[in-house]
Specification:
Elements lengths: L2 H10 L3 H22 L3 H20 L10 H23 L19 H14 L4 H10 L4 H7 L5 H21 L5
Length: 182
């Protein structure tokens, strides 16, 4: 069934079209989200379900634009926005910087911790992949090096630790450029 037929059936047809859309793209989306965002399977499934509902509502409400791409690409774009929004919120909201070279405490008198936290979160988000992901998992989600190594398909926790050290140097360089001393 091509995209136009699926859209027509989703708009006018039986509920089976919705199930077909769900079954067709679920596994690919979940694998893609876990790989790209390093999220857990449950988070990826939630994002997929929200994305399918958004797509379905757009189709039902005649709000679906003329597609220049496949329905799959459009669905994944919705999911990408959902995941990006979810993870960027988490990075800004959380302010647990335990272990960040313990130097954050030294600067709390110069800057409010919340301001420093927002600035550090912005800098972490500005790091290139995989550094942004690794630093987020380590400092914001408190993942162990073993867990990070597994998620990022590194050979060992030592490899993850070496990569973290490289990423920390990048973060410190960005912080210096931003006028922060970490």
């Amino acid at each position: 069934m091509d995209d136009k037929q699926l859209i027509y059936q989703l708009r006018h047809g039986p509920e089976e079209a919705f199930r077909a859309l769900y079954r067709t793209y679920r596994l690919a989306f979940v694998q893609w989200a876990m790989r790209l965002y390093g999220c857990r399977q449950a988070e990826a499934v939630d994002a997929f379900q929200e994305s399918v509902v958004i797509l379905y509502e757009k189709i039902q409400g005649d709000e679906l634009p003329e597609l220049n791409s496949s329905l799959k690409t459009y669905l994944f774009a919705i999911g990408k926005r959902r995941l990006h929004k979810q993870f960027s919120k988490e990075m800004v909201v959380q302010h647990d910087f335990t272990g960040l070279d313990r130097q954050v405490e030294a600067y709390s008198s110069q800057l409010e911790v919340s301001e420093l936290g927002r600035e550090i979160a912005r800098l972490v988000a500005a790091l290139p992949h995989p550094c942004n992901q690794l630093m987020y998992w380590y400092y914001y989600r408190n993942f162990s090096m073993e867990a990070i190594a597994n998620r990022m398909n590194y050979k060992s926790a030592d490899v993850a630790k070496t990569q973290k050290n490289r990423c920390s140097k990048r973060l410190k360089k960005l912080a210096r450029q931003a006028g922060l001393m970490l």
